[in-house]
Specification:
This protein is α+β, with helices and mostly antiparallel strands. It contains 6 helices and 5 strands, in the order αααααβββββα. It has a 5-stranded antiparallel β-sheet with strand order 3-2-1-4-5. A hairpin with a 2-residue loop joins strand 4 and strand 5. Helix 4 crosses helix 5. The chain is globular and about 40 Å long.
Amino acid sequence: MKVVNKKLFFLYAHPCGDVLVQRGSMGRKVLERIRKSLKEGRVVESPEVFKVAYKLQCMLAEEMGKKEIDEEVIREYYWRKHDEHVMEESKEKNDVIPERCIIFPAKVVEKEGEEAVVETPVGKRNVNIEFVPNVCVGDFLTVHYSYACEKIDESEFKKLWREKNG
């Protein structure tokens, strides 16, 4: 199934790459290529390198009556389905998945270079903002592990905050 916005897909997927490299299901060089291409604003890999996320988004797109994975599918998966999948996988593998793998809304409270301090429903954290252009103090983001994924508007931020803080 075609991914319409590969960049958005990879902005949300790449933070899991370090875990996949540790597990041996992704090569370090592949992850480095993905991150380099994101920094350059382009995409060089197939979304299928994130096998599970891609498969689950294909299924979600079909459930939503879509013939491709568009921005709505990507966000619905990462904002609302990903956390549940991570928890299920953690139980199956008797593994402890840190809360950092959960997708959170965040408000930028400090910024210096390619790093920012953000406020999330679980407290402040430092995040890498190098893949999201023009981040400013006061902006609203989504974060995954220690990476900013994208800017979101205030209404999306408030809705996600309620969902994640509930």
